[in-house]
Amino acid sequence: MNGIPKIHLAEWVDALIKWMQVHFAPFFAVIQGAIEPTTDFFERILTVLPPLPTILLLSLIIWLLSRWRIALFALLGMSFILYLGLWEASVQTIALVLTSTLLSIVIGIPLGLWVGRSDQAKKVISPLLDFMQTMPAFIYLIPAVFFFALGAVPAVIASVIFAMPPTIRMTGLGLRQVSSELKEAADAFGSTPWQRLVKVELPLAKSTILAGINQTIMLSLSMVVISSMIGAGGLGEIVLQSISRLQVGKGFEAGLAIVIIAIILDRMTQNLGEPRQQAKGATPWAGVRKWVSIVAILALLGLGVASYAKPGGAKEKVTLAYVSWDTEIASTHVIKRVLEDQGYEVDMKETEAGPMWSGVVAGDVDAHLAAWLPVTGKVFVQKYKGQYDDLGVSLKGARLGLVVPEYVPVDSIEELNANKDLFGGKIIGIDPGAGIMQNTEKALKQYGLDYSLVSGSDATMTASLAKAIEQKKPIVVVGWQPHWIFAKYDLKILKDPKGIYGEEEQIHTIARKGLKEDMPEVYRILDRFAWTKEDMESVMLDIRKGKTPDEAAEAWIKAHPEKVAAWTKE
Q1: DSSP string of 83-95, one letter each residue
Q2: Neighbour count for residue 271 (Cβ, 10 Å)
Q3: How buried is 519 (Cβ within 10 angstroms: 0-12 exposed, 13-18 middle, 19+ buried)?
Q4: Which of 166, 237, 256, 518 could disulfide-link to 228, CB 3.0 to 4.6 Å?
Q5: Of 131, 215, 134, which is closest to residue 173 (Cα–Cα)?
Q6: 3 state SS of 504
Q7: What is the DSSP string of 518-558?
Q8: Nearest in space to 133 (alpha carbons), one of 182, 169, 85, 98
Q9: How many CB atoms neighbour CB 562 within 10 A?
Q10: Apex CA 176: angle with CA 175 and CA 182, to 5°?
Q11: How far is CA 408 from the centre of its chain?
Q12: Do 373 and 344 form a contact (C-beta atoms < 8 A)?
């Protein structure tokens, strides 16, 4: 770089993260111990009753806190979400938003009061808030995964960091906007600093503070959706699936549900700060509001108590992580259906390859079925060596490499440079965290290819391939077998003389340490799980033809009872 020394900031940050993982582990455990029960409480309180009574109760509470028009919109909007089949995912999203907002308020308002009263505090905290708000939201997911693995906890932490600044800023601003004359008057009447704060400053700053909380709620909602990339679940997971699988209609439904929730939360918090105008003759409604408030509070208390009453024979929960590749969608959903038939509750977490592995290592995920070895997953095997259980091969004979249609007059990677114009100098890839993408980056260097590697997803890769084949145009993509594209199209994997992609891959099942002792039956089923390329491709083709992953998995299980029996027998 022209003799200019490079600042190794990335290495320093990585070293700091590793140091914090070791020395701050008890602190992170305390945080996790506080966030998990809070999120779980909100989920329980919203699911202990059937959806329709819960929606009615929430609408009554919204009516109490705001206006009847907003309550009516909430009733209709949440009912619409229910009949879209998105109520459970919406509850998860609302629980994450409420948890992150609660933490943002608990931390943000005291800091905002400090900023509002101290010029020195404002000088120190304001640059930090600028940094928190301008840093890209996706960046917060990386350390969150390192410290808390997958799930709700890292999602809430990332949301709090991203969404808390408006609460701090607006609280400080509201306090500073209180006129000095009023403060002096309060002091003249003998108020203590605490009395002046509680009885004068906070009431006058209420609308500004609530505006900050409103912004925090909206930012929390947006961050919670992004956090689906680290297994947070909820509506964000459906959006992520829609993007990775190019399901426009499904994505529109989830997006519409997010919009409805955002409007409800926005209008409700906006109205909290507005004084209600009560006309003459409207006094009967005050009595109704009073009684409804009592009923709503009692109902909430009852829900809170009932949500922790565990019914007898509750199912054990198994958590499986997977990446949004057609192969892993097929295998993971088959195992999900098998475990459910054995009486287990299965929680699925769709994420990227890195968080999937780290989730198993941290113990937040019980297993994943997506270890392509020895080449593709080599980086994760080296990184987490000895921190997981390898249950062996679930599928043999997998192959990876650069793939072209059969009609393309290129047979080897070495021939690509000479045909750069034919392919437009582009190799169509999948998600950037995948091992095959890292291998392709190596191939670009080893073969000296003057090509750009285009990141995307499994779905965008297959869509590009299908479009090119339809138009009989040349295209080169990263690909692997088994995959439904090999069953549908005439394709060939380019020869790899340097062996960058390896000769043959095997797919392994990876389990967390301690699973054998905690859930011996689950461990046994995962350990015995094995099938063929033809089995996997048949499930993938069914999904491609329009079946849901669960329906395709169920159909395969019914057609192959002898294989399932071999996995599940004692």
Answers
A1: HTT-HHHHHHHHH
A2: 16
A3: buried
A4: 237
A5: 215
A6: coil
A7: H-HHHHHHHHH----HHHHHHHHHHHHTT--HHHHHHHHHH
A8: 169
A9: 6
A10: 80
A11: 39
A12: no
pTM of the predicted model as reported, rounded to 2 decimal places: 0.72
Residue 232's SS3 state is coil
For the chain, the average pLDDT equals 85
Neighbours of 242 (CB within 10 A): 19
Nearest in space to 306 (alpha carbons), one of 498, 68, 50, 126: 50
Least confident stretch, 134-138, 401-405, 562-566? 134-138
Partners of 393 in the beta sheet?
A: 508
According to DSSP H, which parts of 227-313 are helical?
Answer: 235-245, 248-272, 283-306
Over residues 441-493, the pLDDT tens digits come to: 999 999 999 999 998 888 788 889 989 999 999 999 998 888 888 878 899 99
Q: Which residues contact 165 (CB under 8 A, 6 or more apart)?
A: 108, 129, 132, 133
Find out whether 408 and 477 touch, Cβ atoms under 8 Å: no
Q: What is the pLDDT of residues 361-398, one digit of tens each?
A: 888 899 999 898 887 788 888 888 889 999 999 998 88
| Coil/strand/helix, residue 219 | helix
Buried b (16+ CB within 10 A) or exposed e, 138-161: eebbbbbbbbbbbbbbbbbbbbbb
> What 8-state DSSP symbol labels residue 197?
I
233, 218, 230: which is closest to 265 by C-alpha?
218
153: tokens are: 């906890």
At residue 314, what are phi and psi to the nearest 5 degrees?
Answer: -60, 145
